[in-house]
Amino acid sequence: MKKKNIGFKAVLLLVSLFAVCSVTNVFAAGGQARGGQPELALVPPAMVSPFYAAVISGAKPAAEKLGYKLTILSTERDDDAAGQVKIVEDLVQRGVAGIAICAHDDKAIVSAVIKANQAGIPIVIFNSLTDLPGGEVYAYVGYDQRRGGANIADWVNKVTNGRAKIAILEGLPGFHSTERAGGFNDQIKKYPGLQVVATQPADWAREKGMNVAANMLQASGDITVFYGLNDEMSLGAGQAIKQAGKSGVITVGIDGNPNAMEAVKNGDQTATLFVNPGKIGSASIEMLDAALKKQPAPANKRVPIDSIVVDSTMVDQYL
Asked: In angstroms, how far is CA 221 from the centroid of its own chain?
C-alpha cells in the first residue's frame, strides 16, 4: 500500500501542476482564450481525492472534442469554501465562457454563482443533484448520493446476513456527507440487525481515515463493517484493520476510483460504490456546451449518472 500511495501522490501532483499551470491562461472578451478558443473552467473542491482526477480524465477529452480550452482550478484544502468562491469570482472577472463547479458548500457558492449569472456565464454543478439555495444553474450532473448510501445499506445487509456493527467515517460537513450518510442511515432502519456503533469525521482523507478507524477499533473491538463516505477513508480503515491484526472486517466506500477498484480486486477493500466520475466530467462539459448553444436545459435540470456497488464478484468488469 505504501508503494501505491507514493505512486498515486505523484499522479495527484501532476494533476495539481496542470491545475496551477491553467492559471496562466489569458482571456479575451466573450470567453475567448488566447488563440480565439472558447474557455471553460472546471472547479473541483480540491485535488485530495482521486475522484476529481477521474472527473478531469472525462472532462478533458470532451472539451477538446467540442473545441474548448479547459482550465482546471481548485483550492488546496477540501474545507476552503471561501477560497473556492474567490476562484469562481476571478473566473467570472476573466470572462470565461462557462463554469462547472463541485461546491465545497452549497450555500457559500451562491454569491459567486449569482455573479456568473449577472455576467451571462452558464453554470453547471457536478457531483450533486441537489439544488443550490440560490442562483441560476443550467444543469446538475451527478449520481443520487442519498440513493447511493441506501444501496450500500442494502448491500451490507445482504453480505452480512442482516447482522452487523457498523462504523461510519464521515467527510467534511456539507451536503455530500449529509446525503451519503443520511441515505444509509435511513435505509438501515429496515434492517434491525444492522447497528451503527460509531460515527466520526475523517475529512475525506486516507491517513485520517486510518487514524480514526484505529481509534474506533480500540474503543469498540466488535466493529464488523466500516462505511467510508469516500474510498480514501475506506482504504484508510483497511490499513487500520491490518495494523490491528483483525480479519473479516468489511470495508466499503464511495467513488469507484481506479485505485479503489484495484484494492477491491486485491482484497484490500471489500467494495466501492462506482459513480462513474469520468462520465460526470464529460457530461458536465457537454452541458456547458449545450448552454452556450442556447439549447433547452435537461428535464428538471438533472443529468443523473447511474451508480452500483462493486465487490470482488464483479470488479473485473470495472478495472
From this structure: 30
Question: Could you tell me which residues are beta bridge partners of residue 253?
Answer: 272
The candidate with the shortest Cα–Cα distance to 280, out of 314, 255, 253, is 255
Q: Are 107 and 128 in contact (CB under 8 A)?
A: no
pLDDT digits (tens, 9 = 90+) for 177-207: 999 999 999 999 999 999 999 999 999 999 9
The fold of 145-274 is: Rossmann fold (3.40.50)
Ordered DSSP codes for 113-132: HHHHHHTT--EEEES--SPP
| pLDDT above 80: residue 74 | yes
Query: Are 230 and 46 within 8 A, CB to CB?
Result: no
Encoded amino acid at 20, one letter? V
Question: Using the 8-state DSSP alphabet, how is residue 295 labeled?
Answer: P
Angle 258-266/2-22 helices, nearest 10 degrees?
170
Q: Are strands 27-28 and 32-33 parallel, antiparallel or unpaired?
A: antiparallel
Least confident of 25-39, 105-119, 288-302: 25-39
Pick from 201, 222, 220, 221: nearest CA to 211? 201
Query: Residue 306, class by beta-carbon neighbours within 10 Å (0-12 exposed, 13-18 middle, 19+ buried)?
Result: exposed
Distances (CA, A) of 210 to 76, 200, 233, 318: 21, 12, 7, 26
- What is the rounded distance in angstroms from the CA atom of residue 70 to the CA atom of residue 42? 7
Rounded Cα gap, residues 109 and 137, in angstroms: 12
Cβ-contact 307, 276 below 8 angstroms? yes
Q: pTM (2 decimals)?
A: 0.83
- Residues with Cβ within 8 Å of residue 268, at least 6 apart in sequence: 1, 235, 238
Q: Is the pLDDT of residue 221 over 90?
A: no
The domain ranges of the chain are 2-142+277-305, 145-274
Fold match flag (2-142+277-305 vs 145-274): yes
Q: Which top CATH class is 2-142+277-305? A: alpha beta
